[in-house]
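Hi R.,

Here's the chain you asked about this morning:
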Amino acid sequence: MTTLSLTTLKARYRGSRPFRWVVDLSVMLAIVLVIGAFQTRNHPRGAAPPYTFTTLEQAPVTLSSLAGKPTLLAVWAPWCGVCKAESGNVSRARSWLGDRANVVSVATAFNDVSEVRQYMAAQGVDYPVLLAAEDFQKVMHVEAFPTVFVIDSQGRIVSSMQGYTTTLGLVWRTLWAG
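And here is the predicted structure, written out as C-alpha cells:
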C-alpha cells in the first residue's frame, strides 16, 4: 500500500492540471458551504412555525396550508436589488417544478402594498405573492434579503439560503426536500 506524502501531493498539484482543478473546486465548494451554513445558522429547522399571511386581496393564507408538497418560500423586500436579480430564478423554478412543488414568495419590509405591486409589475412576477407583517422577519430569523426556505411536504423546514440563489439551486433543493 502506498501513502502519499506532502511532497508527493505538492508535486502532483503542480504537475497535473486536472488534479489542481479538483483540489481548487473542492476548496471553493467547502468555503461556499461553510459560509452558507454560517449565514443560516439561526434559521428555524423542523416544524414550520404557525404563521398567517395575507394575499394581495387581503385573504388569509396559513403556512400550514401549503403542506402536502414541497414548498419553496422566497422572502423578499421591494427595495432589495438582489431580490430583483433573483426574481427571474424564482419564476423559472416555478415553471420547471410545475405541480411537483409549491413556489410562493413572501413580501416583507414594505411600507405600503403599492410598493409590492410596483415591484411585481417591474419584475414581471408570475408566481404567488403573500404579504407578511413586520413580525415575520423575527419569527423566521430573516436577517437579509433575499432569503429562501424549503419546506418539505410534511411542513418541516429542511433547508434555507440567504442571498442570491440560482434557478438550479432553487429547483435542486426543492426536489431534494420532496
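One quick note: The helical segments are 6-15, 17-39, 81-97, 113-123, 135-140, 167-177.

Cheers,
M.
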